[in-house]
Write a structure and sequence with these properties.
The chain has three helices and 16 strands. By secondary structure, it is α+β, with helices and mostly antiparallel strands. The strands form four sheets. The protein has a seven-stranded antiparallel sheet. The radius of gyration is 20 Å and the shape is elongated.
Length: about 240
């Protein structure tokens, strides 16, 4: 019986990530599952039954926004429980309790910025694969201050400038040639892994982040340079008109 109760509690605490199905979902009204107050900091820590807020991780920055008109200070994932904790600043004596209905509002400009940069990073993978480069993806950084995708591999110094131009060309050509009906999709595998596909020709990539609905929303991509770090090569990139 205790085991059954434990699983029931785990199921109750799991936070449904609404952005998995719609990155452009900017508002939602979930229920509070857990609420803890830090009196010293005047902060609430909330676990919700579902959320539109993407926490930092996978190379992507945290979302910004409000919960019931209170600013979200930070987001953190409890991997064991599958929950996202929302730290909320409350200076006016507001309180939250389990069962409360709250209103979430994500900063749309920030969300779209993150989605474009993250999808552009996946586009680097697509371009590298199209070029037949045997690079093994290592990590990524999809922040506005210097986005890059890092691969296990090496490129001679004399070849890096030309290869950067080629990756950029293939990436932008992929954007232009993708049909308007060929949208970005995702699916959850049996083991719980979420795969994201930029188009029907993409083989997919494990990802928990937010993305554009179509690759054309990424805009023009510039591969600024290739940088080698020990056994890894970084493909540094940017996108145009980033708000």
């Amino acid at each position: 019986k205790s085991v059954s109760l434990a699983f029931a509690r785990l199921e109750q605490l799991m936070t449904e990530r609404l952005y998995f199905n719609d990155s452009y979902c900017f508002e939602a009204s979930p229920l509070v599952n857990e609420a803890e107050f830090d009196q010293e900091k005047s902060e609430w820590s909330l676990v919700l039954d579902k959320t539109i807020f993407h926490p930092p991780g996978g190379g992507q920055p945290s979302d910004e926004g409000q919960i019931s008109s209170h600013g979200v200070l930070s987001l953190a994932v409890d991997k064991d429980l599958g929950t996202i904790k929302h730290k909320v600043a409350c200076k006016d004596g507001a309180s939250f309790s389990p069962g409360d209905l709250v209103f979430l509002n994500v900063d749309e400009v920030v969300r779209r910025r993150h989605a474009r940069l993250h999808s552009a990073g996946h586009l680097m993978d697509v371009a590298v694969r199209k070029m037949g480069l045997m690079f093994q993806s290592s990590k990524a950084y999809h922040y506005p201050d210097g986005s890059y995708v890092e691969y296990l591999g090496s490129v001679p110094v004399v070849e890096r400038e030309l290869m950067a131009k080629k990756i950029m060309s293939v990436a932008n050509e992929t954007i232009q040639k993708t049909k308007d009906t060929d949208l970005v999709t995702s699916r959850i595998e049996q083991d719980g892994t979420r795969l994201v596909f930029l188009s029907s020709e993409d083989i997919g990539c494990p990802c928990g982040g937010t993305h554009v609905k179509h690759v054309k929303e990424i805009g023009h991509v510039t591969v600024t340079r290739l940088v080698e770090k020990k056994k890894f090569i970084r493909v540094c990139y940017s996108v145009t008109n980033l708000e």
